[in-house]
Amino acid sequence: MRTDVPEKLIKIVEEIDSRGEANLTRLTVLKKWFEAPRRLQPFALWVAARATSRKDKTKGEAAQLFAESRSLLAGLDRLGDDLDRPAARALYDRLRMFQSEYRNDRWGQIRIVHHWQLVLVEKGLAIALSGAPHPSEGYKLAADYCQNYDPKYGNSLNGPSSTKVLEIVRWMSTHEALEGEQ
Question: CB atoms < 10 A from the CB of 140, how many?
C-alpha cells in the first residue's frame, strides 16, 4: 500500500541539503509507516544487511561476526520470513556478548562500542526476532542507521545521512510495490 512517508523523507533530505542538517526526530514519520504489518521486521533485516555490507578493516572476532552476519542475512526474501531463527538468535547473543563492556558514569552505565556496524546488526536482529516489535523501535533503528556526527552539528542528520535516508526511501518504495503485488 502506497503512503506519503517516502515523500516526507525526501523533504528531510532537502532540509539537510539546504540547512546542512536536520534533527534526528524528523525520522519519527517512520513510526506510522511501521504500524502496517510485515514492514518493521523486513526493514530491520535490511538495515542489518546494509550494516554488514560496509567495508571495514576488521580482524579477529569482529571480522568473524561480520562474515557470519553477511552469510545469515544474504538473500532473505523481502516479504517472507526466511530468517533462520535459531541461527539468528545465536548470532544475536554472540553480538551482545562481543560488545558487552560497560563503564560507570555519574548518569549510569555506558556501553562501550568499538564496532557501530555490529551494533546495527544486533539491533536489527533483535527487532526481527521479536514477536511484536513496537514501531518506535524501527524509528530508533533508522535514526541509529542514518545519524552522523559532525562537530558543527553534533549527532544529527547531516552530510552522509542524506544518502542513507534516500536508501531507506528506495527500500520503502520497493517494499510498498511488493506489498501491492500480494
Answer: 18
DSSP string for residues in 77-134: -SSS----HHHHHHHHHHHHHHT--EEEETTEEEE--S-HHHHHHHHHHHHHH-SS--
Task: Kindly report, residue by residue over 62-117, the tens digit of the pLDDT.
Answer: 999 999 999 999 877 666 668 899 999 999 999 999 998 889 999 899 988 889 99
pLDDT at 57 over 90: no
Please say whether the beta carbons of 47 and 39 come within 8 A: no
Answering whether pTM is above 0.70, one says yes
Domain range for 149 is 5-181
Distance CA 124, CA 138 (A): 9
CA distance linking residue 28 with residue 117, whole number of Å: 22
Task: Determine contact, residues 150/156, Cβ cutoff 8 Å.
Answer: yes
For the beta carbon of residue 45, count every other beta carbon within 10 angstroms.
Answer: 24
Joined together, the cell numbers standing for residue 98 give 562481543
Looking at this protein, which amino acid is placed at residue 41? Answer: Q
Domain count, the chain: 1
Q: Would you state the pLDDT for residue 134?
A: 96
